[in-house]
Amino acid sequence: MASGPTGFPTLQPAFILKEMSSGTITTVEGFEPKLELEVVYGGDWFYIDPDQEHGRVNVRGIARTADGVTISYAYIGSVASNDDIRAIFSHSPDAKTHPFGQTSSTLTFEVGPGKLKSLENCTWVGNGRFVVGKDTIWVETRVSKLVPSTDMD
Questions:
Q1: 144: which of 9, 11, 36, 136 fits an S-S bond (Cβ 3.0–4.6 Å)?
Q2: pLDDT tens for each residue of 24-47
Q3: Can you give the pTM of this predicted structure?
C-alpha cells in the first residue's frame, strides 16, 4: 500500500539545451529519442515584472539534426530576480554564472513526420541558468519529460 498522496507525475531527465544566438540540444545518457541538434536560429524576449521580483523569458528557435531534420521549439519561463540576475543584465563586472533553480520553464516542439515526432506529444519542463563567459552570456537549460502517473488510488 502506498504511503502519501498518489497519482502525481514524475520527471525523467531528457536533454540539455545550451543557447545564445546558436547552440545545441543534446540528449542525456539513456534518453530516447537521442537528440544531437544544432540551434540554427533563435530569438528571445526578456522583461522584468513591474514589482521587480521576477523576469519573464520567451524563446523561439529552430534546430537541425546532422542529417537535416529541422524542428522548431519554444519555451516560456520565470526568472527569480535577485542580485545575481541583476548583475548579469546590467553587464556588471561582478556578474557571474548563477546556480540552477532561479529559472524554470515549459517547452514545446513542432516536428514534421519522422523519428522525432514524439517530442510534440510530451510535456517538457526546464530548470535553467545564465552562464557568464569571458565575452558572452548564454542560457543552459536542463530539460525533463513529465511522465504521467499510472497509479490507481
A1: 11
A2: 999 999 999 999 999 999 888 988
A3: 0.89
